[in-house]
Amino acid sequence: MFQVIPMQARTLAWWLDQSGDIEFAPVYQRKSRIWSDKDKQFLIDSILNGFDIPKIYLADFTFMNTVLNRTNKKYAIIDGKQRFETIFEFFRGDVLLPIDFELEEDPSLNLGGLSFQDLTRNYPRVARKFENYNLTVMGVITDDEAKINELFVRLNSSRPLTGAELRNARPGEVPALIRDLVTHGFFTEKIRFNTLRSQDKNLAAKLLLIEHRGQLVDTKKSHLDRLVMESSETPGTLDDEEAEQFEEAEAENRIEETLSDTENPDIDRSALRVRAVLDRMMEVFTNKDPLLTTQAPIIPYYWLIRALSEDRLLHVRPFLVDFEQKLKSNRTLDLLDPARDPELDLYYTMGRTSNDAASMRGRYRILRQRFDTAYPA
Questions:
Q1: Residue 172 shares a structural domain with residue 153
Q2: What DSSP letter does each residue of 168-213 carry, written as one string?
Q3: Looking at CB atoms within 10 Å, which of 43, 177, 308, 352 has the fewest?
Q4: Are residues 178 and 63 both part of a single domain?
């Protein structure tokens, strides 16, 4: 028997309570590289700033009795030992935040060098964010040690990479276009989120995908990977004359007409449309803009800016600042408070699934309706 299935989503605090029921050194566990303090701090940084981390694989003995369970515990580590140990060490105070740590959602907080206990005492909201982070854990149900060994080897055959890093390593035209897009001033000057694991390329890939499809679509990893594979099979190229015509259209303030050419099979033209909107976003946002500390709201912002006429762009940032303040204030109100805005609650909830097409469309709809009300055309 051999099954690998997702386990129920659990928080880090829940796994800490279960740590006594996890075997960290089963007979089939192989040696892996010992993490440095920098490695450990990077993991904690990733968790607190909401980044995805690689899956953890556990032998799950709650489904069956097996001779592999030599210590009578519920779980045994197959892959992810260093991640689990680092998480538990941070809970215990043995790992500290890096001195230059920045919480992207609130860079004003001075959290560098603090322990989990320091966070609990002085920044309880940040401590709860760590405690409530959900791990993606895969349960392996088997009584075949050879299968576990093979799984371990397959999982550790190379350094775990993010989806953006894997796409960037692929041959073809799309990865090259993505690398070119992140050289745009919007990415180098305006965004404020962490780009250590190619998160800028991840966002660029999403923008390229929605422009190539001509609508707000799912931007999950599988969809981004499909764009790379599709376009590498049928690459397109704009000649010099076409590129010049595109730039002239933008210069003559006819960007709406250019953007209406949706789902063009030419991926180069899609990339040019992205650049055209990014040029507009350069006018809207400030350098290292606090509005751009996370990726989640950027696609709805992009789609709003994409849809507006040039003369309305000067109103976008004041509108977004006011909107985000109202969103934050709304969250502080009691659920039964009549002043609480259900539409803002909906916007916040949809932001939790920021890669879903329905979420993006819903958040864009709310932004557009409120913008049009505040600043009629």
A1: no
A2: HHS-SHHHHHHHHHTTSHIIIII--S--TTSHHHHHHHHHHHHHHH
A3: 352
A4: no
Better pLDDT: 239 or 83: 83
Tell the burial category of 186 from Cβ atoms under 10 Å away from its Cβ (0-12, 13-18, 19+).
buried
CB atoms within 10 A of CB 138: 18
C-alpha to C-alpha distance for 72 and 75, rounded to whole angstroms: 9
Using the 3D structure, point to which of 136, 158, 180 is the last residue of a domain: 158
- Cα–Cα distances (Å) from 148 to 57, 78, 157, 183, in that order, read 10, 7, 14, 43
Q: What phi and psi values does residue 169 have, to the nearest 5 degrees?
A: -85, -10
- Nearest-angstrom CA–CA distance, 298 and 52: 18
Q: What is the pLDDT of residues 251-269, one digit of tens each?
A: 433 344 444 444 445 899 9
Tell whether 123 and 16 lie within a shared domain.
yes
H/E stretch holding 135 = strand 134-135
145 and 214 co-located in one domain: no
| Same-domain pairing of 32 and 125 | yes
Within 10 A of 91 (CB to CB), how many other CB atoms are there? Answer: 21
Do 89 and 220 lie in one domain? The reply is no
Residue 298: give the domain boundaries: 164-374
Stated pTM of the model: 0.54
Greatest Cα pair distance, the chain, in angstroms, is: 74
pLDDT band, very low/low/confident/very high, at 237 (cuts 50, 70, 90): very low
- Alpha-carbon span 127 to 121, nearest angstrom: 9
Domain count, the chain: 2
Residue 53 to residue 162: CA distance in whole angstroms: 8
- Whether residues 208 and 175 share a domain: the answer is yes
